[in-house]
């Protein structure tokens, strides 16, 4: 089974984890157009840290 996930935010990453647990042989490709993974939470910066 091949799955392509667009977006490495919480939704895309959690979906990928659940699918991998349910179908360990699944090949999952996650495409994220930002350098950071983690979606909106990763984009928040405070004192040079990503929250
Ligand atoms: C300031 C702030 C504080 C928050 N605090 C909390 C909190 O305390 N607790 C909480 O539960 N929720 C919080 N949220 C809400 C939480 O961030 C969102 O509910 C959550 O990020 C949604 O996850 P998502 O994966 O659906 O979308 P997103 O986080 O938006 O992830 C989508 C990802 O897809 C990528 N993407 C989009 N289009 C493409 C494309 N064409 N190709 C490749 N990649 C693409 C984006 O770059 C992004 O990384 C907060 C949100 C903000 C903005």
Derived structural class: alpha+beta
Count of the separate structural domains: 1
| DSSP helix fraction | 25-40%
**Hetero compounds:** flavin-adenine dinucleotide
The strand order across the widest sheet is 1-2
Oligomerization category of the chains in this entry = single chain
Query: How many helical elements?
Result: 2
For the termini, the CA-CA separation is: 34 Å
* Topology order in helix (H) and strand (E) letters: EHEHEE
Mean pLDDT: 89
Shape: elongated
Measured on Cα atoms, how large is the radius of gyration? Answer: 13 Å
Major sheet: size, sense and barrel closure?
A: 2 strands, parallel
Tell me how many strands there are.
Answer: 4
Instruction: Assess the beta-strand content as a share of residues.
Output: 25-35%
Uncertain regions: pLDDT < 50 for 5+ in a row?
Answer: none
InterPro entries: FAD/NAD-bd_sf (IPR036188)
Description:
The chain is of the alpha+beta class. It has one domain (2-50). It has helices at 10-22, 39-43, and strands spanning 2-6, 27-31, 45-46, 49-50. The strands form two sheets. It has a two-stranded parallel sheet with strand order 1-2. Strand 3 (45-46) and strand 4 (49-50) form a beta hairpin. The radius of gyration is 13 Å and the shape is elongated. The N and C termini lie far apart (34 Å). 0% of the residues are buried. It binds flavin-adenine dinucleotide. Flavin-adenine dinucleotide (FAD) binds next to helix 1 and helix 2.
